[in-house]
Design a protein that fits this description.
Number of strands: 10
Strand content: 15-25%
Distance between the termini: 18 Å
Number of domains: 1
Number of helices: 8
Low-confidence stretches: none
Structural class: alpha/beta
């Protein structure tokens, strides 16, 4: 069984979705420490023809807290400001009416728990794109939480019943293929191919949130993008 593990990110780039689509079981790694100024609550969208950073506002964020214990702000005005920015960016995009409700339900998630909100968004986008992968929260998985780094991932893959682990290309410096093989696991790294599409007839701005991909492309085209990768 092919497995993948990633922290929960706020509408991550298409490579994250290629990874979800490439595996049989995908684990949302929510019981590790929150990383400030990372991609857990931030991403880039297209605004006025340029890359623009958006941030899901938090009540508090500490590297000493687990992701699953981190809260989104309950300040409705601040959350509505974020939604207005996204609306201003994409209200004229062809698939705005299909995608905006998913974004709204994520930002306005009723319990303000960032792990639950992002898990909702991942499952909603996966359903929209007809991705059949089983999605699991690491906080729900019985595993050895005393382990660290590569050893912890190997333990997780075994707990999931996996014999193959696929990681994003950035993991090449973190994981060793021989170590995984010695534990009966094949290790691969996913390298995203060049993705390009029309954005309001402007010069293409790459590497944005999946929000941008969803706003401008039909499901059938995005499904083809999901297969545009190489395993190394």
């Amino acid at each position: 069984m092919k497995t993948g593990v990633m922290q929960p990110y706020f509408f991550p780039y298409i490579g994250y979705w290629q990874l979800i689509n490439a595996v049989d079981a995908f684990l949302i790694y929510d019981d590790v420490n929150f990383i400030k100024n990372g991609w857990i609550n931030r991403n880039n969208i297209l605004l006025g023809g340029a890359k623009h950073l958006i941030t899901l506002p938090l009540d508090s964020a500490s590297p000493f807290d687990l992701i699953k214990n981190t809260k989104i702000t309950d300040n409705l005005k601040v959350k509505e400001k974020l939604l207005k920015t996204i609306t201003a960016a994409y209200v004229k995009a062809p698939y705005y009416k299909d995608i905006m409700p998913i974004i709204e339900k994520t930002v306005l998630h009723p319990d303000n728990n960032i792990s639950n909100a992002i898990t909702y968004s991942i499952m909603a986008v996966a359903d929209y794109l007809d991705i059949k992968t089983e999605i699991i929260l690491s906080s729900d998985l019985k595993k050895d939480d005393e382990l660290r780094a590569q050893d912890k991932i190997i333990n997780i893959v075994k707990a999931l019943g996996g014999d193959t682990y696929i990681n994003a290309i950035g993991g090449q410096d973190l994981y060793n293929k021989d170590d995984f093989k010695n534990n009966g696991i094949e290790l691969y790294f996913l390298k995203t191919g060049p993705v390009q599409y029309e954005q309001f007839k402007n010069e293409f701005v790459p590497n944005l949130s999946i929000i941008d991909v969803l706003m401008f492309n039909p499901v059938e085209k995005i499904q083809k993008m999901l297969d545009d990768y190489t395993l190394i």
